[in-house]
Amino acid sequence: MASTHRSASDAAENKMSLRTKWAIGGFLAGGTLAGLLGAGSSALAVYFARRVITPAARHEDQEVLAVIRDDKGLQVILAATPDTTIDGVFSLFFAGGQGHARIGRIVSYSPAEQTVLREVEEVYSGNLAEARRGWWSGATYPDPSSIGLAAEDVEIEVDGGPAPAWLVRADASAPAPVWAIMVHGRGATRLEGLRAVRTARSLGLDSLLISYRNDGLAPSALDGRYGLGSTEWRDVEAAIEYALEHGAEEIVLFGWSMGGAISLQTADLSRHRHLIRALVLDAPVINWVNVMAHHAQMNRIPYTVGRYGQLMLGHPLGRRLTGLAAPVDLKTMDWEARAIELRTPTLLIHSVDDDYVPFGPSASLAEKNPEMVTFEPFNGARHTKEWNVDPERWERVVYAWLQRQLAPRNNPGQATAAGPADGAESAGGAGPAGVGPVGGVSGQTG
């Protein structure tokens, strides 16, 4: 019986290998029309696959039209885009990232002229008046001091050398027993986690805002490629070990976007996984195949071409073209399929209009594993900007849910997550006065 199963498995693997070899071979082949067509499709597949795993510089795609200073303060006129027309608190980075301004509420919006006038709450660096282009971001603050918090600059030893991190203590006199480790997303930095630090601190958690391979602060991987979570989790493992060596007894992982995929891998593979008390994931990648298929469709890439791109990432032969040091096993990171295997209480926060990482897999994971997973949908926040459009609600939901997870329990191995309708909104009032309000954060000038 086992022999029959093994034969079928080998045959399936050989079939997959032949399909992948054909795809890659098409790229290398030539001389016939079919070969040329295959080469064109495979070249596009290579390009698509490499885009997913290759770190790239941020593109200044946001136009700055004018800066106005009057008795009401500083305001900026921007070209109207799907991002700049969402009310809330955001960042505008300019001058190649050397300039940074915190952008506040919408003052006026002209659909006819395709312009939007917004308040400028703070300019942290650079001369905004000279800016002509920049990029929009949900990473609102430049450092812990800008939200009124002291931080220690620490280094975590990862593959390749030290990775810088910020450590924000809940109580300066002693380490907290539970630490929050903030894991940023693809193309982002540790700034992304600053939005969650005050909430963690209000719960008595020390916060470690980390860097990891290929993010511009930590040492780069030898291949210079993202592992989509399959390699980056080792840097989070190093951060957990740092926390444990400095007084932590348990860990809560916060993850944004790809940082969510990294956190899930850590909870699955870490030798300290029994010490991970909970996961708080914002717009996480639950299923990379779903995300890649979505982006292929958005970019009008034929289904078969997108599929070839996925095969190249996961097959040893694809390394020649993608530059990966090792294949990326997308199946092991498909938490829709592995839903029942997730045994760490998890809060998923995801906007239903997220056009970068679709929310469907988050909702599906919660539906398949309601014992462990709570899904909290937002609206109108796009990707990883749920806090930015409604910080009061975000902080209230996270505080109330984590408060339940951190409550003393008789048997640590039997913790369960509350259901999505288990009073998360109404329980938010239990938080301290410093948690949640926009004014409480954005009023800080650093």
Automatic annotation (TrEMBL):
- Which residue intervals make up region (Disordered)? 409-446
What protein name is recorded for this chain? Pimeloyl-ACP methyl ester carboxylesterase
Stretches of Low complexity bias are at: 412-425
InterPro entries this protein is in?
Answer: AB_hydrolase_fold, Peptidase_S9_cat
Compositionally biased intervals (Gly residues): 426-446
- Gene3D superfamilies in the record: alpha/beta hydrolase (3.40.50.1820)
Which Pfam families does the record associate with it?
Peptidase_S9
Source domain of life is Bacteria
| Peptidase S9 prolyl oligopeptidase catalytic domain boundaries | 224-407
**Entry's SUPFAM superfamilies?**
alpha/beta-Hydrolases
Q: Which organism is it from?
A: Arthrobacter bambusae
